[in-house]
Design brief:
mainly alpha; two-stranded antiparallel ribbon
């Protein structure tokens, strides 16, 4: 079982959850399987991701999962006890190269459609990537 970008179903830099046979799992079932495998509860995993448990439970049904949560799921698979520590020290929240590039290009004035086109995805996906990246950045001042 793993979370990976190296699969044909992984599109536009978005990870997928694979079962033991390498088949893509639905998001809700994948989260449940990973957490069961490593012995972690939904509330603990949600805390590691910095989201509410109710939000985590909505992924796969009424809400689209974010790459940040999938990346944390990959960390949990690699090292369940280390995932909490990495989150606490914000190591797990480092920006990916695509996230950095999207933020920089938007700050320089490129619009979401231009950024998305350069990566082969939609303007909405470019915006989602930027929003996920902004959520990883440390808060400044009284924010």
């Amino acid at each position: 079982m793993k979370v990976t970008l190296h699969h044909p179903e992984s599109k536009q830099g978005f990870p997928v959850i694979l079962d033991e046979d390498g088949n893509v799992m639905p998001v809700a079932a994948g989260i449940a399987a990973v957490l069961e495998k490593v012995g972690m509860t939904y509330p603990v995993f949600a805390a590691c991701c910095g989201i509410d448990t109710s939000t985590l439970r909505q992924y796969g049904s009424s809400r689209n999962i974010t790459a940040n949560v999938l990346n944390m799921l990959a960390l949990v698979l690699e090292d369940p006890s280390g995932a909490r520590k990495k989150y606490a020290t914000r190591e797990a929240l480092k920006l990916t190269p695509i996230e950095k590039d999207v933020l920089v290009r938007n700050k320089k004035g490129e619009n979401w459609a231009e950024i998305g086109r350069s990566y082969g995805f939609s303007r909405q996906r470019a915006f989602q990537i930027a929003e996920t990246a902004k959520g990883k950045l440390p808060k400044r001042g009284g924010e």
